[in-house]
Structures are given as C-alpha cells and as structure tokens.
TrEMBL record:
PROSITE patterns in UniProt: HTH_LUXR_1, HTH_LUXR_2, RESPONSE_REGULATORY
A single MF term (Gene Ontology): DNA binding
Keyword flag Protease: no
Domain spans labelled Response regulatory: 2-117
Domain of life, per lineage: Bacteria
A Pfam match: GerE
GO biological process per UniProt: phosphorelay signal transduction system; regulation of DNA-templated transcription
CDD domains assigned: LuxR_C_like (cd06170), REC_NarL-like (cd17535)
Protein name in UniProt: Response regulator transcription factor
Statement: the UniProt record of this protein carries the keyword Transcription regulation: yes
Amino acid sequence: MKVLIADDHSLIRSAMKVLMESNGYEVVAEAANGTDTVQLARKHEVDLIILDITMPGLDGLEVINRIRASGIETRILVLTSQSPLFYSQRCMKAGAAGFITKSQDLTELLRAVKIIMDGYTFFPYLAASSVRSSDASMSDIELIQHLSARELYILQQLARGLSNKKIAEDMILSSKTISTYKARLIEKLNIKSVVYLADFAKRNDLI
C-alpha cells in the first residue's frame, strides 16, 4: 500500500515514515506544503495520504478539495494539532476519510489507518463536537462555524501575530486580499478591532 505523508514539519514526516514502514506500508513520497501534496498525489497514485491542515501555500482543506476535484480516489487521513471541534466536520465534508489529532497515541493512529483503508470513515470527535459548557462559548462556536475554511485559517495566522505580508506569501495571495479578509473577520466575529482576534482565538482553543 503506497502512502504520501504531507506535513510542514520534517520531524513529523520522519516519525510518520518510520511508523508506517515498520507496519508494512510503503511511503513513496513526502510533502512539506499543500501545492506539492496535490502534485505528488497525482504523480504517485497513492492509496493513502496522511495530511496536516496547517501548511504553507494551500492548507489541508484546500488540498482535499483539489484532490477530490481532480478525481483522485485516494483515502485521506487528516493528522493535525488543530481543534477537532472546528475542523473535523469541515474535513469530512471536503472529502477526507478520517480525522485524528497529533495528541493521540500511535496505536490510535494505526487503528484509524486500518479503519479507513478497510473502507470505513474515522471521525470519533463529531459525536461530541456540539457540546460546550456555556452559552458564551456556544455563541463563539456558532460564529466560527460560519467562517469559511480560508477565513478560519487566516484568523489563526493573524492571532499568532503573523503580518499581512507573511500570510499573503504563505497563501500565495496579495496583502490587499489579506486585509480584506481581516476586515471581514472583524465584522463576522463581532469584535471591535484586530487587536481582539488573538483573544478570540485563544478563548476558543484555535491557537
């Protein structure tokens, strides 16, 4: 079974390669950004892609969309540090076969791989994803769920302190486009200014 590992951290890719190959899988390619992931998926016709969400160029959700639009039928397992509350369902709707966080142990990762390669899906977080403790949190959740995947990604990058220029370079967009997204986020999230984006993101475990 041929596997493509896509993550912008080389240590993660190396660890995943060792794990997969020691369990009988053949890692035929690795990618450090979204653009290369799509190209390598087309080139190698892999059976499985282990995919991070936060990568330079194209983020993981855009990678899934492009792979599905190309008609490539490979199974995609999202492996990420991002919150399943806001990403698990988005990945499922985009066409991923499974979602697991990097905080899970390796046994659970291998179980997820086996399940999705047997033809099933693996989204253990969805059942509990609608439950939170307070009305205030629920209000934030509803606001976040109305963001597009790109808006959510830009929110996270802004909250981490990245400049418009840096985000634009990573996403292959113009700084003016990022400024437009920033203004849209302030309006959609009902906050006073960009200064409050980081507080909003931290409050909701987005960074």
